[in-house]
Design goal:
This protein has 168 residues and is an all-alpha fold. Helices cover 68% and strands 2% of the residues.
Length: 168
C-alpha cells in the first residue's frame, strides 16, 4: 500500500472514531439534560427522545464499521478453533464473504426503506426521517465492502481467542 493510501485510511479511521466519540458525548449530554429537566423542572425537550434513538442507531452502525475495520466484530467461528493453516484461512474467508453478502442485502433493503420515507414530511428535530435512516444502507453497504475486502486479506492475528477464558 502506498503512503498516500495509508494516510487516507488513517485519516478515515480517525474521522470514524471521532464521529463515534462526538455522538456518544452528545447522547450523554442530551440524555443528562432530559433527566435534569424532567426531574427538577417537570419538563423536557420534546424532540430529545426520538433524536437519542436516531443517535443510538448511528452510533451502533459506526461502531460496527469500526469493529469490522479492526477485526473485532462478533463472529461465529467455532469451527476455526479446531482447524489450522489453509483450512482456517478458507473458513475465515467464507464467513467474511457470507457476512458481506448478508450486509449487502440489508443495505439493499435499507435503501428501499429510505426511499419509502424520501420526500415525506416526517422529521426528528427538524431532520427528515430519510436522512436519519440513510445510515442503514450506507453503513451496511460500507460494512459489506469491509467484510469483502477483509476476506481476501491475511488475518491480522493468527492466534485465535480462547473459547472460555478464565475470569480473574
Amino acid at each position: 500500500m502506498n503512503p498516500g493510501s495509508r494516510r487516507a485510511l488513517v485519516w478515515l479511521d480517525r474521522v470514524e472514531t471521532g464521529l463515534i466519540a462526538v455522538l456518544v458525548l452528545a447522547m450523554v449530554v442530551l440524555a443528562g439534560a432530559q433527566i435534569v429537566l424532567r426531574n427538577a423542572f417537570d419538563t423536557g425537550i420534546e424532540w430529545a427522545d426520538p433524536l437519542l434513538r436516531a443517535m443510538v442507531l448511528w452510533t451502533a452502525m459506526l461502531g460496527a464499521l469500526a469493529a469490522a475495520r479492526d477485526d473485532k466484530h462478533i463472529g461465529l467461528d467455532i469451527l476455526a478453533h479446531f482447524v489450522h493453516g489453509r483450512m482456517r484461512r478458507t473458513i475465515h474467508m467464507v464467513t467474511l464473504l457470507f457476512a458481506a453478502a448478508v450486509s449487502g442485502l440489508v443495505a439493499w433493503y435499507g435503501y428501499g426503506l429510505v426511499m419509502l420515507d424520501y420526500g415525506g414530511s416526517g422529521r426528528i428535530a427538524g431532520i427528515p426521517n430519510w436522512m436519519i435512516e440513510a445510515i442503514i444502507p450506507v453503513g451496511f453497504g460500507l460494512l459489506s465492502l469491509r467484510f469483502a475486502v477483509h476476506a481476501f486479506l491475511p488475518p491480522r492475528n493468527e492466534a485465535m481467542p480462547v473459547l472460555a477464558p478464565e475470569l480473574p
